[in-house]
Structure formats: C-alpha cells, structure tokens
Design a protein that fits this description.
The chain has helices at 6-26, 35-56, 70-91, and strands at residues 64-65, 68-69. It starts with 5 loop residues before the first helix and ends in a 10-residue tail after the last helix. Strands 1-2 form a two-stranded antiparallel sheet. The radius of gyration is 14 Å and the shape is elongated. The longest helix is centred in the middle third of the chain and has 22 residues, at 35-56. The protein has one domain. The chain has 101 residues and is mainly α. It has three helices and two strands. A hairpin with a 2-residue loop joins strand 1 (64-65) and strand 2.
Length: 101
C-alpha cells in the first residue's frame, strides 16, 4: 500500500469523502462545525481508509481494487474519524453526545 497507484488513491479519497459527509453532516458528530472541519475529516478519513485493510484484514476479495479492500477501508475511515472527533472533544472538555436518532 505504500506505492499505490492513482486509482487506489482516488478510491480511498471517495470513501473518505462519503464517510466524512455522513459523520459530519448527517450524524452531526464534530468538534467544530464548518467546512474546515469537514475538510480535516476528509484527510483523517483517508488515513483511516488507507490503514483499514492492514488493520482490519484483507477480506471480501470480490470487493477490492488491487490492495484496497473496500469494506475494511470504510471501517477504518469511520473508526479513525470517530476516534479523532472523540479525542478533540475530550481535550476541549466536552463530552461526546450520541447523535440524535
């Protein structure tokens, strides 16, 4: 995964944008509202998606592109985003509230 091609980068970027949009705008789970926070989530989500396959495993071989396994990438992106927002809220002294259903 270190020397990935451009298509792999774009797949991880799309996964990150979609997961970041869901977490930021639909679930309203953020430390700071606004567009800058959303773009920060995209970067953090990309790193989580990149680490998703090595951490969660290489499964669902039918849903992959080269070394990018889609399901673990989605899980990694979501996990790192939730972790990052929770850490920022903890350091700001706010408790994370569950999103309203």
């Amino acid at each position: 995964m270190i020397g990935m091609d451009f298509v792999s980068f774009l797949i991880l970027l799309v996964i990150s944008v979609v997961v970041s949009f869901i977490v930021h705008y639909l679930l309203k789970f953020y430390a700071v509202p606004g567009l800058a926070s959303f773009f920060g989530k995209i970067i953090i989500g990309w790193v989580g998606a990149w680490l998703g396959s090595p951490v969660f495993g290489y499964w669902f071989a039918g849903v992959q592109y080269e070394q990018v396994y889609i399901i673990p990438a989605i899980l990694g992106s979501a996990a790192l985003l939730v972790f990052a927002v929770d850490m920022v809220q903890s350091f700001q002294g706010r408790s994370a509230k569950p999103p309203a259903m």
